[in-house]
Design a protein that fits this description.
The structure holds three protein chains of three kinds. Chain A is α+β, with helices and mostly antiparallel strands. Chain A has 16 helices and 23 strands. The longest helix of chain A has 31 residues. Classes of the chains: A alpha+beta, B mainly alpha, C mainly alpha.
Chain lengths: 591, 272, 324
């Protein structure tokens, strides 16, 4: 039949441009290597340039392809040697001297020297727009004393010198380049000295890394690492379930339970890496004190904020929103973040007590109106709640919060927006309440800094403040801990600072959500959790895992294709055969 | 008797849905769909207590599907009224009066006809906040021109009728012509077009809600599917969250299309 | 020559409203672009003023629109907020996959629709007609994304007894050797489910047109002649009636490209197919307005261009449409 002929011709016609249109990034190999790890990711690095990439995905990539002066011991996040094998600090705590590892080479073959380290840090110092500039803000001078020794002088003592998240780049590649150069492909600007090398990049699809067999102290035990991007978490979870991918993180409770039932897949409930907060507007102002924004005046009163906290049933949130995967919050840093965490004692804790919340609001002078909503001086307690759309748990939590606050006479209107939009609004002070969260660093300094008076925006509107908090006592505690090198003393100061935060009911920490992950333990062994009881899906595992004993290989995928193609071809053959026979029977009908 | 009644299946279907949408709040009190008050265990398959199973918050999928039609239909009807009102008005103007003004209107209609619906909706969603407004705007702006084109063809057909010339010769004004002759003649086409536009509007609203561009505080079929996708119901194999809203939508759209065929014939069969 | 310049004139006239809409949506509505551009990096009030001047935001609206036109026609769509790369580079990667998906699905939909519509129209009201037209209409009423999800779960992931035969996402297997051995075949394998979804919801258009044309032609005299010559019924249909009905079908195909584009966006999101719709959808997260703007322009301009080509083709090849 003519249409079928047309169809068949068209099929062939389509396959031709399809093969021409595809850039052959994949080489033709016989069978997939057992030592290729496929990580399903939901976020792409926003740039392959280590001075620009700011996303978590970018950070993970750089930890795999670059060396840093120091790295972290998975068990407790303690600093361990990476490019620097040893270090010492001067008695006045202002001069640090690092001895570098011998025999390290860049992926293009040239040797790594102290000049590269000095160059990298100088670039960061001179360019405040680079993503890691804040880490080097306290540096005064960096010099290479000899090819294997680096000296860094700081303006004040800093406890974060061993927690620098600045990837070391080759001076010979970056010498005359603008640090803000966009990079999206492997090339001279992606040369690094990490355990893996970037070999291929298809934006929006995947990044492929090859292991460096000469990496010291121990080369990776897998040969290839693929970071494959998926548009939705469901697609990523299904890929792991089918075996098309090996690792996935940030699962929802439903996906976690479903994957837990799949043989060969191990699920991980990783605690202690983040917290979720309800932020209020305590009276936003710039760092010079000028008020900005349009926050509801009632929220400047700490009693109102305390009442809101009493209206929230945190255990229910953990059970219903997190599916039980997490811990009810209160203190700023999660309980598992030792030694820094602080939690309010029994009496201090403002738990779920709507009666108490009502009492506080009545006493603070907010009588209920005819529709049940409280008001004072003609202004209703009608608050805007801004909710980021990046994770389902924010939206789900918002629904509960709206309902609970209605019961104590506060009307709340939730509004969904992107993370960036929410960030801009908060920074402009144009908000009442918002939901947000932070991922922990090994060192608490940054998270503490965002609650200082100085973090508030300047005249140009730039700042890193989380909630416009400005408490002189908190600032005093923060500054002291920033200069204290003794960990025990420092921990005490950090805990005292958190108590100051809790006194002011700012932020209201809702819970510490667990990160839910899954990996194919039937294909790879040796996953490491960082810190202990924490996440397994990260660079600290990928440099340590090895292929498991070969029981099931990825050839399942290609054999699936083989069967489908074979079946399809057989079916097509039968159809064509039948057609040909029919036509032969009708040959005598040609006009 | 049954066979003669078969063509009425379409409108009967639509009437059934409308009735459900109107009655739903009486059968299912508003609070029941509040996830805070949900009593069921999350993501359980159909059972005696929950005939269509539960979603990730523990709400009954049956109740969600019944109530979800309200918002979808509300948005759909509003968008359709806007689109058909604007489209029919412009079609009457350009078809009846003609002239240079009519030619300009025709150009405008041609411009809007080829505006692709989903990219425009996504663009609106990026510029305006997700909610009812971008969905309404997207549907109305991309549908009205299709309506205008079809109605205009019908108006032109009527205008060419000889009896209309006679009416004009007798001194009838434009208002009289439109009200007593043109409008009644094109009414079936307008109604049929409205029915098809409504079908498309509900489909689009569901798609946009699924993509996260709709109002997140409203329960609609699209939002049920969006929740299912976002909370991982698909991976968990919770087919009971996926099938009912989609099947309900298919039956409704088929009902609208059957009704449209019943009301009047459309020259080339499509409005989109 | 005159015809070519008239064609160019029509092209510009048709594209102008798309560009105007893009300008209104993305330059006027979102507020201060200078703030958005320097987002994430410290900038003083002077720097912001300078950026505004460089963007021409202090000029009258008409001037801004003209500058905007110039920039777009030059291919300068700005820089992506998220990737810090020129927008055209971000989108260029998505153009090929979208064309591949939309093109393949349209061709298959037309082929299947023509075949089933011809059979249905030959005997209207018969059992074949009722069955095939009913199926086509039901699939036409199905939301594209939903059908995609169902196929994904049934044939991609595997539900119950059904094995998960096809890939769950993407255009290529990231791991060499994980799928078919040749790149073209790998892409084709990933293309099966998305194309199946898009084809299923679309083919009803062609089915209905073909059916109507054939039903109208059934009693035509030239067909009586063919029957008199001794051709079997199917031969009469396929050799004579169908070719005559093909041209309006092809024209409708190209004129309805807007529907195809919308469907493509939905399918790309469900299957993580890295095309323009997928890029636009993920640009919503930030929101990456320059990328959204670029994707909107590209998709709309694509629809406009295809429609004009369809018009020209129809006029050229269908003698009934040529001016007397």
């Amino acid at each position: 039949m003519q249409a079928i002929r047309v169809g068949l011709g068209v099929v062939g016609w389509i396959l031709l441009p399809a093969s021409l249109a595809t850039v052959p990034v994949t080489r033709v190999t016989a069978a997939p290597a057992r030592d290729t790890l496929v990580v399903a990711t939901l976020q792409e690095p926003d740039s392959l340039n280590p001075f620009l990439g700011a996303t978590v995905a970018a950070n993970q990539l750089f930890r795999l392809t670059y060396r840093y002066l120091t790295s972290y011991r998975p068990g407790d996040n303690h600093p361990v040697p990476d490019l620097a094998t040893s270090w010492r600090v001067s008695p006045d705590r202002l001069t640090w001297t690092f001895q570098l590892r011998e025999g390290v080479r860049w992926s293009d073959g040239r040797p790594v020297t102290a000049a590269d380290v000095a160059f990298t840090y100088r670039v960061v110092m001179r360019h405040p727009e680079t993503v890691n500039a804040a880490a080097a803000a306290v540096f005064a001078e960096v010099s290479a004393l000899d090819p294997a020794t680096v000296e860094i002088r700081t303006r004040e003592p800093t406890p974060t010198m061993l927690y620098l998240d600045i990837p070391i780049v080759p001076a010979h590649a970056w010498a005359d380049r603008d640090p803000a150069t966009p990079v999206d492909r492997p090339g001279p600007l992606t040369v690094g000295s990490g355990p893996f090398r970037l070999t291929a990049a298809a934006p929006g699809q995947f990044l492929r890394l090859a292991a460096d067999p000469t990496y010291q102290p121990a080369p990776p035990r897998i040969g290839t690492l693929v970071l494959q991007h998926f548009g939705t978490s469901d697609a990523a979870a299904q890929a792991v379930r089918k075996g098309d991918a090996d690792v996935v993180a940030n699962l929802t409770p439903a996906q976690y339970t479903a994957l837990g039932r799949v043989p060969g897949v191990t699920t991980v409930d990783a605690a202690a890496t983040r917290f979720t907060e309800l932020g209020a507007n305590p009276g936003a102002a710039r760092s010079d004190g000028t008020p900005i924004g349009d926050g509801h005046p009632a929220l400047t009163d700490a009693r109102v904020r305390a009442a809101i906290e009493h209206a929230i049933d945190r255990p229910t949130l953990v059970a219903r929103v997190l599916g039980g995967h997490g811990e009810a919050g209160a203190g700023y840093l999660p309980t598992a973040d030792k030694p820094w965490s602080w939690q309010p004692s029994g009496d201090q804790l403002r738990g779920y007590d709507p009666g108490r919340a009502n009492q506080i609001l009545d006493a603070a002078g907010y009588p209920r109106g005819p529709d049940g909503v409280r008001a004072r001086a003609g202004r209703r307690l009608d608050l805007r709640l801004y909710v980021p759309d990046s994770r389902a748990l924010y939206q789900q939590s918002a629904t509960y919060l709206v309902s609970w606050l209605r019961e104590i006479g506060i009307a709340m209107t939730p509004r969904l927006m992107s993370d960036t939009q929410l960030g801009s609004r908060v920074l402009a002070g144009r908000y009442d309440l918002f939901l947000g969260g932070w991922v922990l660093d090994p060192d608490p300094n940054f998270l503490l800094s965002v609650q200082t008076c100085a973090a508030r925006p300047d005249a140009g509107g730039n700042g890193s403040t989380d909630l416009f908090l400005c408490d002189p006592e908190y600032d005093r505690l923060y500054n002291r801990q920033a200069r204290t090198l003794d960990e025990a003393t420092r921990a005490q100061l950090v805990r005292a600072a958190q108590e100051r935060l809790y006194r002011q009911a700012l932020p209201i920490v809702l819970f510490y959500p667990a990160v839910l992950e899954a990996y194919r333990s039937d294909r790879f062994t040796g996953f490491v959790r960082r810190p202990s009881g924490g996440s397994a899906a990260g660079w600290w595992s990928y440099v340590a895992i090895a292929p498991a004993a070969p029981r099931s290989t990825r050839s399942a995928s290609s054999s699936r294709f083989g069967w489908t193609a074979g079946g399809g071809a057989a079916l097509a053959g039968v159809l064509i055969g039948a057609l040909v026979l029919r036509r032969r029977a009708r040959r005598d009908e040609r006009e | 008797m049954i066979r003669r009644g078969l063509p009425l299946l379409g409108p009967a279907c639509v009437a059934g849905y409308l009735l459900t949408a109107v009655l739903a709040p009486l059968l299912i009190p508003a609070g029941r769909l509040d996830p805070v008050r949900a009593t069921g265990p999350p993501l359980t398959p159909p059972s005696y207590r929950f005939p269509l199973g539960t979603d990730s918050a523990g709400r009954s999928v049956l109740e969600l599907t019944l109530c979800g039609s309200r918002w979808s239909l509300l948005i759909g009807v509003t968008a359709t009224v806007l689109a058909v009102g604007l489209g029919a008005a412009i079609a009457l103007a350009s078809g009846h009066f003609g002239g240079p003004g009519g030619a300009v209107l025709d150009r405008v209609v041609e411009w809007f006809v080829i505006l692709p619906q989903l990219p425009f909706a996504v663009a609106l969603g990026g510029v305006l906040a997700p909610g009812a407004l971008p969905v309404l705007l997207a549907i109305a702006v991309t549908s009205w021109a299709g309506v205008a084109r079809v109605v205009r063809a019908a108006v032109l057909a009527v205008e060419a009728e000889p009896y209309l010339e006679r009416v004009r010769a007798l001194g009838a004004g434009h208002v009289h012509q439109l009200r007593h002759h043109v409008l009644p003649a094109v009414r079936p086409v307008v109604l049929a077009t409205a029915s098809l536009t409504l079908a498309n509007a509900v489909l689009t609203e569901t798609t946009l809600s699924f993509l996260g561009l709709g109002d997140p505080t409203r329960v609609s079929w699209g939002s049920v599917l969006h929740d299912a996708a976002v909370t991982g119901a698909v991976t968990a194999g919770a087919w009971w969250c996926l099938l009912p809203p989609g099947l309900a939508l298919i039956v409704l759209v088929l009902g609208f299309e059957a009704s449209a065929r019943l009301i009047g014939s459309i020259p080339d069969g499509r409005v989109r | 020559m005159a015809r070519a310049s008239r064609w160019v004139g029509t092209a510009v006239a048709r594209l102008l409203p798309v560009l105007l809409l893009g300008f209104v949506l993305f330059r006027l509505l979102p507020g201060d672009p200078a703030l958005a551009l320097t987002r994430g990096r410290p900038a003083t009030a002077d720097q912001l003023a300078a950026t505004r001047h460089a963007l021409g935001l202090d000029r009258p609206l008409v001037t801004q629109f003209v500058r905007y036109l110039g920039a777009v026609l030059r291919g300068d769509l700005g820089e992506s907020f998220e990737y810090h790369r020129p927008v055209w580079r971000v989108l260029a990667g998505g153009l090929g996959p979208t064309l591949l998906l939309a093109g393949t699905a349209t061709v298959f939909a037309a082929a299947i629709g023509i075949a089933t519509g011809a059979r249905a129209g030959w005997r209207p009201g018969g059992r074949t007609d009722k069955l095939s037209t009913g199926t086509a209409l039901t699939l036409w009423a199905t939301p594209t994304f939903w059908l995609g999800l169902v196929l994904l779960v049934a044939l991609g992931v595997g539900a119950g007894p059904l094995p998960g035969l096809f890939p769950v996402a993407g255009m290529r297997s990231a791991v060499p050797g994980a799928g078919p051995p040749w790149p073209a075949l790998d892409v084709a394998w990933h293309l099966v489910l998305p194309v199946a979804t898009l084809t299923a919801v679309q083919y009803a258009q062609y089915h209905l047109i073909m059916r109507a044309s054939l039903a109208a032609q059934r009693g035509a005299p030239y067909l009586t002649l063919a029957r008199a010559k001794g051709l079997r019924d199917a031969g009469v249909r396929d050799r004579h009636a169908v070719p005559n009905a093909l041209l309006p079908t092809i024209t409708v195909l190209l004129l309805n490209i807007g529907v195809v584009v919308s469907g493509t966006v939905a399918v790309e999101v469900v299957f993580s197919w890295p095309g323009l719709g997928y890029l636009a959808f993920h640009a919503l997260d930030v929101p990456d307005l320059p990328v959204l703007h670029g994707a909107f322009l590209l998709l709309s301009a694509g629809v406009v261009t295809t429609t004009m080509v369809a018009d020209a083709v129809a006029r050229r090849f269908d003698p009934r449409l040529r001016p007397p």
